[in-house]
Design goal:
It is built from 7 helices and 7 strands. Helix 2 packs parallel to helix 7 and helix 6 packs across helix 7. The chain is an alpha/beta fold and 194 residues long. A 7-stranded mixed beta sheet has the order 3-2-1-4-5-6-7. The two termini are 29 Å apart. The structure holds 5-O-phosphono-beta-D-ribofuranosylamine.
């Protein structure tokens, strides 16, 4: 099965730390005929999270790597990636910051989703800060990963209107729906260069 897929599609790894809704959307896209990728591997820095449960139900190879020692953890991951001939890494709610050294090795091949209209609101607690600042719009961004947090070249963005009635929770929910649609589009854009 894998050999067959591998002939036509690019082996990709998805890095997660939690729920895995973006993993699910990437996977659902990957099994379509138009997709150029297949999800060969899921890496998580946490046990028993939703994304790992999902990977198991779909029989996707999955590895839990605990980041007690960052250098060691990254070396372990690099080995697994190499072994699996991974050509694209999608960070999807992965809560660890990869080292410059790691990023250099996969330069231009790591993409990430962030729940704001970058370059605004890099980092954590995005929705809370957006609401506090009474912004009219927020959204989500898929970008290449470089050595600086949430700062790599933007691939694609989706704007979301904020209503007066919105709070951080309702906004997060609305944006997540858009994130799940945006990630496959970003992958398509990267691979087809459209
Ligand atoms: C998403 O909001 C993503 O933008 C952020 O972490 C969240 C992960 O959600 N980096 P999920 O695990 O993909 O559902």
């Amino acid at each position: 099965m894998e050999k067959l897929i591998g002939k036509n599609k690019i082996p990709c790894a998805v890095f997660i730390s939690g729920r895995g809704s973006n993993l699910k959307s990437i996977y659902n896209y990957s099994i379509k005929k138009i997709s150029k990728i297949y999800v060969k591997l899921v890496i998580s820095n946490k046990y028993n999270v939703g994304g790992i449960k999902f990977a198991k139900t779909k029989k996707i190879k999955n590895k839990i790597i605990i980041f007690k020692n960052k250098n060691k953890a990254e070396q372990q991951i690099l080995e697994i990636l190499k072994k699996n001939n991974i050509k694209l890494i999608c960070l999807a709610g992965f809560m660890k910051i990869l080292s410059k050294n790691f990023i250099k090795i996969y330069n231009g091949k790591i993409i990430n989703i962030h729940p704001s209209l970058l370059p605004k609101y890099k980092g954590l607690n995005t929705h809370e800060r957006v609401i506090k600042n009474e912004e009219k719009y927020s959204g989500c961004t898929v970008h290449f990963v470089n050595g600086e947090l949430d700062s790599g070249k933007i691939i694609i963005q989706k704007k979301v209107k904020i209503l007066k009635s919105d709070n951080a929770k309702t906004l997060a929910k609305k944006i997540l729906i858009e994130e799940n649609k945006l990630y496959p589009k970003a992958i398509n854009k990267v691979l087809f260069k459209t």
